[in-house]
Amino acid sequence: MNIPHQDNTTLAGTVTGTVFTVAAQIDSQDYMKTVVLAVVGATASFLVSIFLKWIWKVLRVQQKPRN
């Protein structure tokens, strides 16, 4: 069986060119807004995870049978 060889250089060039073209047209304010939103989102996610972990621990302690 003969498997055809695929040349990915055209695909790589197209994707890279598209990414650079889009990146060049985005304002620096948009980059800063994206960074700020990413930091806020990551912080909120972390704090909610810590809060839920604490709630889970409190609920598990309350459910333990007492001797």
Q: What this model shows, in words?
A:
The mean pLDDT is 87. The chain starts with 8 loop residues before the first helix and ends with a helix. The protein contains 2 helices and no strands. The protein has a domain at 28-67. The protein is an all-alpha fold and 67 residues long.
What is the H-and-E element order? HH
User: How much helical structure, as a percent, in the residues?
Assistant: over 70%
Report the uncertain regions: none
Mean pLDDT reading = 87
Strand content: under 5%
What's the helix and strand layout?
Elements (H helix, E strand, L loop, with lengths): L8 H17 L2 H36 L4
At a glance:
This protein has 67 residues and is mainly alpha-helical. It has helices at 9-25, 28-63.
